[in-house]
Amino acid sequence: MRHYIFIFLLLLQFAILSSPPTAHAQRGLRPAAAVTPQDTPSVASQDTALVAGQDTLSLAAPQGDIATTIKYSARDSMQFEVDRKVVHLYGDAKINYGDMKLEAAYIQINYETNTLTATTLPDSTGKEAGTPVFSQGAETYAAKRIAYNYKTRRGRISEVVTQQGEGYIHSEVVKRNENNEFFGLHNKYTTCNLEHPHFYINAGKIKAIPNDKVMAGPFNLVIGDIPTPLGFLFGLFPTPKAKRASGVIVPSYGENARGFFLNNGGYYFAWNDYVGTKLTGDIYSLGGYNVEASTDYVKRYSYRGNFRFTYDNFKNDEADIEQSRTTDNTLSQLPSSRRTFWIYWNHSPVTKPGRGSFSASVNAGSALHQRINYNSSAQYLSPTFNSNISYQKTIPNSPFSYTVKASQGQSTQTGTMNFVLPDLNFSMSQVSLYELFSEQPATNKWYEKFTLTYNVRASNTISNVQPARTRSDFPLLETAPADTIDVNFDNLQRLWESGRKSAVHSFGIGLGNYKILRFFNFSPSVSYNETWLDEKYNFTFNPDSQRVDIDTTNFGRVYQYSAGANLSTTIYGTVNFKEGKKVEAIRHLVRPSISYNYRPDFADERFGFYQNTLVGTDPRTNEAIYRNLGRFSTGLPATGLSSALNFSLDNSIEMKVKAKSDTAEVKSEKVSIIDNLRLSSGYDFARDSLKLAPVRMSLNTKLFKFINMNFNSTLDPYQKDDSTGQSIDEYYFDLSKGRLGRITNAGLNLTASLNPEAFRTETAVPDNLPSLERPLDPLMPQYVDFNIPWTLNLNYTLNYSRAFGLTGRTNLTQTVGIDGSLNVTEKWKVTYNATYDISNQNISYANVQIYRDLHCWDMSIGWVPFGLLRGYNLTINARSSLLQDLKLTKRSNTGYNY
């Protein structure tokens, strides 16, 4: 019965399409001649219906083999064979059947066999066009011929290219089953997305399970159409989609100073969508191994982080033997056998208003670990590593916030480790004192501008190296050598007790900013700081031992305060030039500033911060010697009364010039001559001598638009003693002779950034250039791009210092550096970096990196020609992460571990 219904529907449709032209016009259809391709059998006219134009039909699904409605359309024509139950679609044919879509130049629907057949058709030039494209769900692939049974959901595809994850499978014939699994014959598996790939894995048979894996029989690697003997009896390539999976990490192999090695082999554990752990290890033929555990975690909209722990058993028998024979310090560059570890933890929160945020940046471990297991020259040369863990929160609807923090720093050169544990901080942002104590609205009075900020930091500072206490000319404290505490669990209590515990209170008192005589800004200021310490010393001279005995109390309080004011203004001066000149005007901007600061003498006994103590007797005169000894280990205020007047003068000069332009419009631009020239000094009225402070000068400017110049210098305004080099209370400073002082130190830095942007002009290209229609030289390339991107940075640094007296000397250091990059072609890139020490006449560091983009491959060559890290490395690897182990690495052994 269902067959009769289907035939009736087709006849009804044929009757409608065969109606007069007016009916066609009402339905928007245009009559046209039938199109019958040469490779399609002709059908009798009485059994055929022809439709021209862009036609779209939708047939309701009868009960039976067809599960849902089949929608199809064609640009040229549709042909129906009623007796055979076949529909032919020509020209941009499209079919939608559930989640399945098919597009091709020609599609045949056979309702008798429940099949869809799609092929290409030759165009007017005889070239095959309209490649069939099949898609179902998230999968899409193209082929020369597609045959698909929509009942059994099986298909046969010829000359197909399908994508599985990051890989592409080129197959001569592919069969597809109802589970969407593919079985390919004569296959090429590659991650290159070109029609003719640069490389592929050649396999006779392949089975692909979408979003899971690709399995291959015996295969070998083909590079540039050249078969290689590299291969195996079987292959397994995971292709998971949107879901991580656990699996084996294949190690890489090679050779370096530690012998032949297998690196980075292990296993990845995908615990869930938010946490994953990678457990890997290295093993070396000369002994030693490395184990690393790394965990990544993430919580959406909250935080993400990574924790990594590395343990390394480093073996270097040659260094052990050499260091046992000699004490030459130069061999310290060659580490002996040792066990090291390193911890890395990074935790980044997503900040949300009103909520606290926890963050961590931990980078710590054994002193030599990074020098043995470095990944870059910057890591190898880094002298220090710092870590911190903190929790910060701002209390909503209040000016208060707090931070809980722990930090650590270590030096890879000295082995010193410093800890601040704990580190507590509580602060109050700026509040108005008037609004704090008064309920009346502000009326813009001068006293209403007073503000207050507060901050307290409580911390315990710990160091594993206690500095030595040395004796002076007279007995003071008992001499003690430097004490080093090993950082381990057994010494935790000792390290804690050696720490310096303190609480620092800082009060910021703002007294407002006021205008005086319209042009001057007047800003008074008051500051107060107070420190609480866990130790306070009392000194007593012991005549029997001729030393100073120290009595320690458990708590001490030290504070300091000061008051001051600042007066500043801005002066403008402009010189205009006559019309017709290139320079239109020059403007000079001067910003003078004068400030006064008063601080009492905190060495006075009434404060109790210093103690005037008998320390011994002068053996030449037999007179008692007294010294002011600080009673706190840290936080002591400066001694001596200060009543200082400081002044500074900032200058900037710029000019307005006519800009270069090829148009009739006249444009002007500003050119900076001096960005900032600063002179500063001070005069302390409370000092009994040497009241004038050193004169400091700095200059910042840009030369020729691409050279930045920074200069600074310090000048001593006083005469010097020829023997001791000490300053004498006699001025060398003399404005009449143009002398500001003797130069004690100076520095100059010049940096030039040369790139196409620095020399680019707005000049238009002339349109009357001669044409290049003459034949080109066959030995020359047809096209050469001379507009190659490049960068070049030059750096010159000079530092000068001078010490006076018989033992004084002058030090002058000069270095010049160069770095930049060059894109030789679109695919080649070279970067370089070098520093030359002019004073010592040697190259401090040099590095050259060459990169080549091989489309689906990457190649890099690194060369360090000088120094301990000298050597080269060559790496060629597949770009896709799926084939990350498909690489070739070659490293030289001239360097230590390069």
From TrEMBL:
Domain LPS-assembly protein LptD central: 214-718
InterPro entries: LptD, LptD_2
PANTHER family, per the entry: LPS-ASSEMBLY PROTEIN, LPS-ASSEMBLY PROTEIN LPTD
Organism of origin: Pontibacter anaerobius
Protein name, entry field: LPS assembly protein LptD
Signal peptide span: 1-25
UniProt keyword Cell membrane, yes or no: no
Keyword vocabulary terms for this entry: Signal
